[in-house]
Fold this sequence. Notes:
Two copies of one chain form a homodimer. With 155 residues, chain A is mainly α.
Amino acid sequence: MPELPSKTTLRLRDFLPYRLSVLSNTVSGKIANLYDREFGLSIWQWRVMAVLGENAGITATEIGQVTAMDKVAVSRAVSGLIDSGHVARKASAEDGRRSILSLTTKGKGVYDKIVPIALGAERDLVETLSAAEQEQLARLMDKLAKTAEPDRPLW
Amino acid sequence: MPELPSKTTLRLRDFLPYRLSVLSNTVSGKIANLYDREFGLSIWQWRVMAVLGENAGITATEIGQVTAMDKVAVSRAVSGLIDSGHVARKASAEDGRRSILSLTTKGKGVYDKIVPIALGAERDLVETLSAAEQEQLARLMDKLAKTAEPDRPLW
DNA sequence: CTAATATAGTTTCATATGTAACTAATATTG
DNA sequence: CAATATTAGTTACATATGAAACTATATTAG
C-alpha cells in the first residue's frame, strides 16, 4: 500500500476529526431544522421514531443500541414522544422492568411524512456525487467507523 | 452520471446524516479525551490553540471564522485559556474593540506537545485506508461540505 | 428461599451550550 | 459634528446534556 508522506504540522482545516465534526454539525443542523419546524421533533426524537418505524415493539434499551444514544437520551426522547402522542408504551409481559414501545397512529402518520423529506434531504446532499462516488463514500465511512469504534482500546 | 436507484424506505444505519453524526461523535469523543486527560483542554479550547499556533496575533472574531465556532464559544474558550495561562490577550492599537490573541510560552509548549498526538490519532484513524482512499475521502468530504454550506438556501 | 447482584429505566444535579441582551468602541450618515 | 447604525466581545438566561444516584424488577448464588 503506497504511503502518504507523514504530516508534521497541523492545519486545522485539513484535520480529519475537525472536518468530520464541522460537516456533521452543518448537516445535522439543517436536518434538525426540518424536523423541528415542521413537526416539533428534536433530532433524538426523530431517531427514536425512525427506529420504531423500522422495528415496532422494541424496548428503550434496544433503541439505544441501534441509535448509539445513551439511555438517558432515549428516556427523555421517548417521554417527550409519549407526551406529544407519537409513541405508545405498554408494559412487557415477561419483564416488568421493560416497556414495549411503538408508534401510535399519529406517530406513524408523521413518520410516513418525514421519511420522504429525510430521504430527499439526503439525496440533495449527495446529488453532486456520482453513483460510484456514493458507494465509495459509504465504504470509506464503514472503514473509519470500524477503526473508531468506541470500545476499541484507546489508540 | 449513472444513477443509484432512489431509496423509498429509510434505514437509519444507512442514512448519511446519521452515519456522519455517529462517526463524528465517536472520533471527537476519543480525541476530546486525549486533550482533556493530558492537558485539561476542551475541544474548543484546543481548536482555538490550534488556530493560534498557525496564526499568531489574530482576533477572536477571526478565530470564529476559521474554526466555525460562534463568538460566544470562542469567547468562553479564550477566557478559559487565559485563566490557565495558555493564551495572552493584548488590546489592538487600531481598534479598541478588538483584542489580539496569541499563545503564551506555556501555550506554545502545550501546542508543540499536542500536535504530534493529534496527528498520530488522525494517522491511526486513517491507517486502514490506502493513500488513494485517503485522497478520495478528502475529495468527497470537500464536495459534501460545499453542498451543505450553512448559508446555502435551505434545501 | 433469601441475600447479593445485575438490569431497565427515571430522576437529579452539575455543567455545557445557544440565543438574546448588553457594553464599549468604531463607522456612517446627513 | 451630532445622531444613528454597526461591530467586537461579554454576560445573562433558558435549555440541553451527561454522569451518577435512584427505583423497581429480575437473576444468580448459596
